[in-house]
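I'll show a sample.
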Amino acid sequence: MKQLMLVLLALLGILEAPALQAGEMKPLEIGDQRELFVDDYLIDQLKGAELRLHHPVDEGIVLKFDKPWEGLFCGYCTVIKDGDLYRAYYRGRPSAGADGDVGEVYCYAESKDGVNWTKPEFSMFEKAGFKKNNIILADAAPMTHNFSPFLDTRPGVPQAERYKALGGTMGSGLVAFTSPDGIHWKQHPAGAVIPKKMVPFPYMFDSQNVAFWSPVEKKYISYFRVFKDKIRRIARTESDDFIHWSPPVLMEYTSRGEKAPIEHLYTNQTHPYFRAPHIYLAVAARFMPGRQVLTDAQAKEIGVHPRYFKDTSDAILMTTRGDNTYQRTFLSGFITGGIGAQNWVSRTNYPALNVVQTGPAEMSVYVNQDYAQPTAHLRRYSMRLDGFASVRADYAGGELITKPLIFDGSELSINFSTSAAGGIKVEIQDENGKPIPGFTLADSREQIGNEVNRIVTWKGGKDLKSLSGKPVRLRFVMKDADLYSLQFK
């Protein structure tokens, strides 16, 4: 009854919105971590502003799958940034065949900038009559169907296990691998660490099944593909040692407080965002079975395999913060098919695992395209740092008011952009919504420009030490501007 009265009074203009009343909302403890506007975690109110999804820029082909042991059915790619070196892993598969048979290998490429890639020549496996090639794993079916490596960042990890991987199908379970250098791999003695018997679903594992060390949860986390009610879904499990895993939990989907549609997700590609590892990004492949776009004549013209143009697919963006729910804040496509029939076949537009930094203000995601075609390749798409989504206010102006939060730091940094006519002002309020003297809107210096790291200032300067550790709200008053992220430093 009390909450209802507050709502009525707010509607009459007698009180501010109910969320601004003392004691109504527990402050978020964000410390000094970077927060992105990929969900509504920080947001209490938006007035004349909205959460807006941004789309990566197509930067063109970076790897052609043109070697005899690669071919039309290359897929399940992973890109890892290890210091100054970028590593790419992908399945080589020149001809169609059953999942997990001996025709599959895993290939490797590397780059010094994430843009220009080379394929080193090794002599570990002879394939297609070639003793030298870029194959780093072969003769290991069915694990070479969907081998998915990661760089283990757990403190104290032995050098011999600096890289780890999972691979396998329902018959084998998910089998563990280790490597000291990301190139020379061996199967872990434990074998299938996530066996079929521990997964309570009728079908599982037949796509890229990912794992990583979470510095926030201080556990290994794995997300893998299952079927539920004949729909491709995602399950999550966790481990302290990468060998013993918890019973899997089915992931659910919400969108801005509502249940989100359940769609076929072929791969999930969930991983900690490198600038905010408490936020797990999922640039997932959305599969539309039976949604045929091409005619038989179009399919023949581009040379796609006759079994692989009866469906279509694209990439979507989801996030999760370590629970059993993905936030599908944006239901529309994140990376959609480009111009041309070759982009509208089955199992194309599948993102590689991981978003990596490729410039001072740039990051990249890589996408497997032209699947089942002679032109199969890996393509790079670029974004500004943190640029998945933003709080956007157009020329008419708008506002964002955060939930109460407790920070640790002495400066507020924002990643933002404005037009020449636009700008952003920041007011700091107490947890009840009352402006704090010295940090009011009138005290705020307008931020104009386009930067990934701008320190916000007021007439009295930028020092926020007096507010650190206390519950506050942030009010952003914006005009023709985007706010991508914030961080207290």
In short: Helices lie at 2-11, 296-302. The chain has a mean pLDDT of 95. The chain has two domains: 28-54+389-488, 57-384. The first helix runs from residue 2 to 11.
